[in-house]
Write a structure and sequence with these properties.
The structure is a homodimer of 468-residue chains. Chain A is mainly α and 468 residues long. The first copy, chain A, is built from 23 helices and six strands. Chain A has three domains: 143 residues, MgtE N-terminal domain-like (MgtE N-terminal fold); 125 residues, CBS-domain (Roll); 171 residues, Orthogonal Bundle (Tetracycline Repressor, domain 2), CATH 1.10.357. The first copy, chain A, is 66% helix and 6% strand. In chain A, helix 22 packs antiparallel against helix 23.
Chain lengths: 468, 468
């Protein structure tokens, strides 16, 4: 972590200095490599926080990563593995002997260890697990048995749980004794003390700041907050994130089917989830996979083209509509000139509505209770914007081709298409959500299909009726 | 906060029960209002966590909100104001007498109080500030003087700072004494103790979990972490969020120009920022304002239409291209049928690239150092997907209109447009970022202008050359 103060966001050069690792650091490591000065390279790498070293490794080329790992190997902080992007991590683990990877995994908190191991391909995973000692192996295999993106994967198994008859003094003495024994049973950082019954079911929580301002003789069961949320292990991480955001939690207990405390989720894990889930929605709305920046060309190409081919369904159906009106276009070629405007305005307006709907669904602000009201509002907005755009484009088109009829026809078509866009912009995500399909993935393909076909049909149809 | 365990994500009905406030609660409040049973309505409202009551209020209509506030007024938990969406908050504050608002603001931690007051219109703000006592007023006015979205706005002024010669025992005794005096100088929750020099400049931090596992005689200057980031008050909140995510911080010190500790940012504030900033990017990419769901129809309509009108620039320039090739279309009307496919495929592929670039810029993974490599990668991906789509669409078009020439021309045009889309998909966001413009706001308008005009020009131009 850098000791220099942060500077406000400004020009690019400044912004790049804000973080622990800068372009200059990367260049310095490169220069040391080129000069064959392994000592200097190590000096830079070892001076960095693990999160920054991970950034530096991501900034290097695969060949440079190979040089770095060949030279430093096991001297690289194991925490680095937890901070790397998934694709880079897989590459880097391929550069390390399995025994070194196993040793690194043992050093990590359980939540980080699970994340690292889970991201590996099955054979590599098996090999790493085989290199662990029995105890660590069981813990990891248990955690890997939970579904991806569940609280069970997110939680760490190290936490502080004490009986309810203990006092503040008992608890502090226990922590000090454990720390003196080496502190291996304690998590690296913790924020709350969990009070449990004899069956290990959580009864309440005491935040550390509350514990610290209370006199030694006070019993925890007088002090604890009993109004707590117990998160079942299979809860989806998105639900966990909502809970943390809603109640500003620092940590929360995770329980098994019998209600026993089995782990703890902390705010830093949730911060990553909030970031990840929003990122996922942004990317899915555009038909892109996350992690895209670091994937090989072939993978990126393959993951993106399926969405493009899907979008062809909509495009060809729009083409069919135009094909149906070929005769009309042959007589008034101005229609071909103007028709993309009608379709695209509908598409753009629909994407505005759809984006609001997709995010409202994700953060649970759109649901059965207010769907009708929101569709009503979107229809009104579409009507108002439709009127304004119809007037604007109708006037321009009427003047351009010196035909008031054409102006009226394009204006009417825009109005119709914007109303359709407003309605389906809410209905498509809502329907996909009800069907259990992620609305971010497929909404825009369906939407564009509707706005293209409605746009072309309304415009060319009206032209065929009124202008011929 | 509900005491029942969370259930995993499943069907809609289940999902709505996960939170403190459910559709049933809202219906129950409505039923109580209709029955004129104010007591029952209050019973439900007062049983909720402030964050849940805020959700309930957001779920009511403006008329119902008026009834609720008329009945309960000052008995509503002041914290609710901090949890409300901005537009609903403004409405609700309009329902309360200024003295009640001032009393509520006084109850909040400084960061929440600033957020509430800052979101009000200037005259309302003045009125509320005038109703505060002098001390609170000065604190708020100082905070309001910092730029929006700065660390100064995000931080709270309540924190625990102690001299470096203190021991663990001194610190714990101090916290207990302060708590017994009423604890008004202490923050409600805190996660770290800040060690300061006599000029109040931070020397280091001690996390509470570290303090708790250390014996009483140990001095803080032996215990503290001195490798800390001091955040200047004017730092942008996005930078602060990066810092927390990068180093998994629970809290961090904010310093003034002289390096003195003036406030502390905590993880829950940052969680909201991470959420907000990602949300902002999603919305801006689609030309939508945040908060859109709760805004009045007129405001939503006005904020969205400017983006639609902007997009007309691109659409009309594409129309000009088609207009230029009118003669060609009159001779081969199949061109009008197929041309939207060429333009839209380029647009869709470009949006994929652009989305990756915009997010990579936001999270600082795209910068001068790797721009060339990423443009190279995107060009390769575009070339591969271009080839595949060209073959697919070329074959379909060639068979449809029984013309191998047309198939070749559309295939070539798709190839050209995808290459253009890949290049400008990175270059546009990068250029806007360099110019200091938020790439999320304007990128897509420019991108679609390029892919539409290139698409139409390549397709119609090639047709004019080779098919006539």
């Amino acid at each position: 972590m850098s000791d220099t103060p942060l500077r406000p966001e400004g020009e690019q050069a400044q912004a790049e200095e804000l973080y622990g690792v800068t372009r200059r650091d990367i260049d310095a490591v490169r220069a040391a490599m080129d000069a064959g000065d392994i000592g200097r390279m190590e000096g830079i790498a070892l001076g960095l926080h693990a999160a920054d070293l991970a950034d530096l490794i991501e900034g290097l080329s695969p060949a440079e990563r190979r040089i770095l790992f060949a030279a430093m190997g096991p001297r690289i902080d194991p925490q680095v593995l937890a901070f790397l992007e998934e694709t880079v991590r897989e590459e880097v683990i391929g550069l390390m002997p399995p025994a070194d990877v196993a040793a690194a995994v043992t050093e990590l908190d359980t939540d980080d260890a699970v994340e690292v191991v889970a991201s590996l391909d099955a054979p590599v995973q098996e090999e790493i697990l085989g290199n662990l000692d029995a105890g660590d192996r069981v813990v990891l295999e248990e955690a890997l048995a939970w579904p991806e993106d569940s609280a069970g994967r997110l939680m760490q198994r190290e936490f502080v749980a004490v009986p309810s008859h203990w006092t503040v003094g008992d608890t502090i003495d226990f922590l000090r004794d454990e720390a003196e024994k080496g502190g291996e049973s304690l998590p690296t950082e913790f924020f709350d003390i969990f009070v449990v019954d004899p069956a290990h079911r959580p009864l309440g929580m005491v935040s550390l700041s509350r514990l610290l301002r209370t006199r030694r003789p006070v019993r925890l069961d007088e002090l604890m907050d009993t109004d707590i949320d117990r998160i079942p292990v299979i809860t989806d991480q998105e639900e966990v994130a909502h809970l943390f955001r809603q109640y500003d939690l620092a940590s929360a207990p995770v329980v098994d089917d019998a209600g026993r405390l089995v782990g703890v989720v902390t705010h830093d894990d949730v911060m990553d989830v909030v970031h990840e889930e929003a990122e996922e929605d942004i990317m899915r709305l555009a038909g892109v996979q996350e992690d895209d920046l670091y994937q090989a060309v072939l993978n990126t190409s393959r993951s993106r083209i399926s969405w493009l081919i899907l979008s062809l369904i909509g495009l060809f159906s729009a083409s069919l509509v135009i094909w149906f009106f070929q005769g009309t276009i042959e007589q008034i070629v101005a229609l071909a000139v103007l028709m993309p405007i009608v379709a695209a305005l509908g598409g753009n307006a629909g994407i505005q509505t759809m984006t609001v709907a997709v995010r409202a669904l994700a953060v649970k602000e759109l649901h059965g209770a207010n769907a009708v009201r929101i569709i009503g509002k979107e229809t009104l907005v579409a009507a108002m914007n439709g009127l304004a755009l119809a007037a604007l484009v109708g006037t321009v088109a009427g003047l351009w081709f010196w035909s008031p009829g054409l102006g009226l026809v394009i204006g009417g078509a825009i109005m119709v298409n914007l109303l359709a866009a407003g309605a389906v912009g809410v209905l498509i995500p809502l329907t996909l959500h009800r069907l259990g399909v992620d609305p971010a993935v497929a909404s825009s393909v369906f939407l564009i299909t509707v706005t293209d076909t409605v746009g072309f049909a309304a415009f060319l149809g009206a032209a065929a009726l009124f202008l011929l």
